[in-house]
Amino acid sequence: MTSNSNSFAIEPQPAFRAILKDEIRFSSGRNEPGDKLNGSFDRLMLQSGIQTSPAIWLMLCALCGLAVGGVAFVVTEGFVITAVGILVGLLIPIGIAANRRGQRQETIMEQLPAMAEELARAARTGRSIENALQLVAADTPSPLGDELKLAVRRCDMGLDPGAAVQDLSERTGVSALTMFTSAIKVHQDTGGDLIQVMERFATAVRDRLHFLNRLKAATIASRMGAVLMLIVPPLIVVFYTYRDPGYLQQLLSSFWGRLSLVGAILLQVVGALTVFRILKRSARF
Length: 285
Fold this sequence. Notes:
This protein is mainly α and about 280 residues long. It has twelve helices and no strands. The protein has three domains: about 30-100, no CATH class; about 110-205, Receptor-associated Protein, CATH 1.20.81; about 220-285. The protein has helices at about 35-50, 55-75, 80-125, 130-140, 145-155, 160-165, 170, 175-190, 195-220, 220-245, 245-250, 255-280. The model is unreliable at about 1-10 (pLDDT under 50).
């Protein structure tokens, strides 16, 4: 009896390519302020690598806001402090996700040179781009390895390698991966020397990491000063409130006091957003 085990092999089908699109997103793609905010939250959840539904994370934000605001109300019985506590509680999960995203992006940047060099070695042995990606994905640790394994599964579903890795930059937030995906797509469409391109890509990423490390070392005093500028004003308000429980009530009893407090909060928020935007641009990958 002859063996026909190969008859059960499943051929890749392009119709399967939509099976892996299971991300839940709030953004609908419209050019509106609210939809842009939803898109920013979607990107934060996707790029942070947190395996939690965005809806559940929003519920966690609400619960943290209620918890911190409730504690603030029990301790101070002041509505202003309670409102500030609710706002701080709402932002705690967002800050955790942003921190996770930053750590994940740093790890991916550190993994990129070794991954590109291994892909070049695999291509030098004569493997196809699909087999080379599969080998590299199996040897690369998380988090970059997880993204490459997703691309390999997409290839198994029928996508070509260029389309399988096309959204790596969007999924991770690492702009350097745009060069990697472009190299894969160009090699697939027109051929070219993938080995030399990957070696140059690894060298470019190492040079960029070296530059970013030098930039962080040179600007550490400025960044610490900016952080202190954001932290000190709330700490002063907390100190005076703890020293004199009626401090905020006296401040809010007059029109100019309320106006000055609202103006200070608005300026603090604008300053915080400006500082974070500058720090984000200076450390962009």
